[in-house]
Amino acid sequence: MPKYLAVDELVRGNGLCNAGLYSFILVGYMVGGSLIPTPGGGVKVAGVLLAASTLGWLAALKTLRAGANDPDLKISFNWFAQIGRMAQIVKNARGVAPPLFGVAVFFLLSTAVTVLTPLYARDTLRADSLTATALNGLFAIGAGLGAIVAAGLAKGRSGLGYSTFSVGLAGVFSLLVFFFSPFASAAPGETLKASALLTTPAGIALSFLFVATSALMGVYIAPLQAAVQRRAPAACRARIMAAGAFLNAAFAIPGSLSTFAITNTGADPSLVFPAIAIAMLAIAALMLHRRRSLPEGLYDEVLRQS
User: Fold this and answer.
1) Residue 109: C-alpha distances to residues 220, 241, 280 (Å)
2) Does the pLDDT of residue 178 top 90, yes or no?
3) Do 147 and 15 contact (CB within 8 A), yes or no?
4) Where are the alpha helices (DSSP H) in the chain?
5) Directed axis angle between helix 79-92 and helix 97-119, to 10°?
6) What phi, psi does 174 have (nearest 5°)?
7) Is 31 exposed, middle or buried (0-12, 13-18, 19+ CB in 10 A)?
8) Do 139 and 10 form a contact (C-beta atoms < 8 A)?
9) Counting Cβ atoms within 10 Å, is residue 240 exposed (0-12), middle (13-18) or buried (19+)?
10) CATH of the domain spanning 7-31+78-291
11) Tell me, what's the pLDDT at 67?
12) Dist CA 103 CA 97 (whole Å)
């Protein structure tokens, strides 16, 4: 993306790309959630995955060509050595590591919510599996809306101020999800249906909180992605972004394993929301501290003089 967009267009570019990503995630929830309960659902889902992967590969072939920033770079298949080199590059690149870790934390939190939502729907809300799919769909919708908002907010600015505000407010909304859950749950012996999310006052309020929380996180991530792309030296930018992809996966793993913390302890799945809220508020506090303590100019809030 930094090859095709101006510096002050990166936040908008990342926001629009994220919106497309979350839209397809939503489609995946809908298709996968409807296919998996049917006879031979696993085979059908596998077929969809193969077809989607093929379409992604074909789309990648149509990507606009751009010259290499380091044409003499040799490909090495020594994975462990390359991981060490990428970590060293990230360490040496000024101002790159904080937004890189900020993006990785987004994947940790969003993965935890995604995998725990079915347990939350079943045990806390006393809902059926379709309701769990609907809640995850609302989470994807909110993230997409937030990405679009991020694309519109940060014109000529880094957007990191919006990122800080958004993650803090998302923490507040996540706490509200926890406190509101008992009011939205079905009565003992009854089952909450997905339609209740749009037809009852409690369901509508819970849906709003899910969408709002994920939308704010959608605003949070785009400026951080743009900051990495903007600050990384061109000669090693691709390797820094590769390190970011590795870090995202590394952080997503404990997020996905968080389900065992619930199933092995019998804890209330809704506890994930105050835990996430604490993490979000801590991130906001850290970003505020960093903004106030860094030397003038490193925070690069203003990118273009109006």
Assistant:
1) 12, 20, 9
2) yes
3) yes
4) 10-35, 41-61, 79-92, 97-119, 129-153, 160-184, 196-199, 201-231, 237-263, 272-293
5) 120
6) -65, -40
7) middle
8) no
9) buried
10) 1.20.1250
11) 78
12) 10
Size of the chain, expressed as the number of residues it contains: 306
Residue 298 has pLDDT above 70, yes or no: no
DSSP 250-303: HHHHHHHHHHHHHHTTT--GGGHHHHHHHHHHHHHHHHHHHHHHSPTTTT--B-
Read off the pLDDT band of 154 (50, 70, 90). Answer: low
**Distance between CA atoms of residues 163 and 175, nearest Å:** 19
- Give pLDDT tens digits for 261-285: 888 888 889 999 999 999 999 999 9
**Considering the entire predicted model, what is its pTM?**
0.85
With bands split at pLDDT 50, 70 and 90, how would you rate the model's confidence at 306?
Answer: very low
Q: Rounded distance, CA 110 to CA 107, Å?
A: 5
Name 218's Cβ contacts closer than 8 Å, sequence gap at least 6.
Answer: 15, 18, 19, 22, 142, 143, 144, 145, 146, 147, 148, 149, 150
Q: Are 237 and 229 in contact (CB under 8 A)?
A: yes
Q: Which of 21, 23, 298, 6 is nearest to 155 (CA)?
A: 6
pLDDT tens digit sequence for 120-147: 999 999 998 889 888 888 888 888 888 8
pLDDT at residue number 156: 65
Alpha-carbon gap, residue 211 to 170, rounded angstroms: 10
Give burial (CB, 10 Å; 0-12/13-18/19+) of 159: buried
Q: Please work out, in degrees rounded to the nearest 5, the angle formed at the alpha carbon of residue 146 by the alpha carbons of 143 and 280.
A: 75
> Both tokens of residue 111?
């993965």
Cβ-based neighbours of 207, under 8 Å, separated by 6 or more = 138, 197, 198
Query: Which residue is listed with tokens 């957007």?
Result: 159
How many other C-beta atoms are found inside a 10 Å radius of the C-beta of residue 32? 15
